[in-house]
Amino acid sequence: MGGPEIERLIGLLAKLPGLGPRSARRTALRLLQEPQTRLLPLAQALQDAARTVRACATCGNLDSTDPCQVCADPHRDRAIICVVEGVGDLWALERAHVHRGTYHVLGGTLSPLAGVGPDDLNVPSLLARVAAGGIGEVILALGATVDGATTTHWLTERLRPSGVAVTRVAQGVPIGGALDVLDDGTLAAALRARRAF
């Protein structure tokens, strides 16, 4: 096929989420066929990102500024913190334009089976933000998994003494979802989260 440089490029691309060996080969070929318009700009963007992007000291978001653009936005409602598992969840909420408060990235969820405990998560800074005052609500926007539920319960217990309102995102039937294909847990959550018209 190609020399060691090409194989290394393919190997690195294959490690990216969503790219297997075949997709990585196609991507590498496309980049190499147009190096001036695809490969070199990508290499420069990767280098710039590696040099400048860091975790925000306030919320844990990734940005080239600290505090990040979300935390620095004067139009944000600073009384509301939305707690998410990872930066990808924060970015998804921002894309949807559904939250105008601030965020806090935990960096994972509690998972006893995987050996992830409270000390492995970004919890102390969340508790410090709440203890500093001015927070009225903490929204727990964690996944509908066993680990997400465990983390939600654990955080609720830690936040309760502060007196802030602790809420969680609704879970249940997705838009366009048919009831007969949903699992029992999703159906139960949907019925528990029902509300009046």
Features:
single chain; about 200 residues; alpha/beta; Helicase, Ruva Protein, domain 3; Dna Topoisomerase Vi A Subunit, Chain: A, domain 2; four-stranded parallel sheet; two-stranded antiparallel sheet; globular
Describe the structure.
There is one protein chain. With 197 residues, the chain is an alpha/beta fold. It folds into two domains: 4-52, RecR Domain 1 (Helicase, Ruva Protein, domain 3, Orthogonal Bundle); 75-168, Dna Topoisomerase Vi A Subunit, Chain: A, domain 2. It has eight helices and six strands, in the order αααββαβαβαβαβα. It has helices at 4-14, 21-33, 35-52, 69-72, 87-96, 124-131, 146-159, 184-192; strands at residues 54-55, 62-63, 77-84, 101-105, 137-141, 165-168. Helix 5 links the parallel strand 3 and strand 4 (101-105). Helix 2 crosses helix 3. It is globular and about 60 Å long.
Average pLDDT reading? 92
Beta-strand content = 5-15%
Structural domain count: 2
Structural class: alpha/beta
What CATH architecture of the largest domain would you give?
A: 3-Layer(aba) Sandwich
DSSP E strands, number: 6
Instruction: Spell the H/E element sequence.
Output: HHHEEHEHEHEHEH
Termini gap: 63 Å
Task: Describe the SSE topology.
Elements: H1 4-14, H2 21-33, H3 35-52, E1 54-55, E2 62-63, H4 69-72, E3 77-84, H5 87-96, E4 101-105, H6 124-131, E5 137-141, H7 146-159, E6 165-168, H8 184-192
Helix pairs in contact: 1-2, 2-3
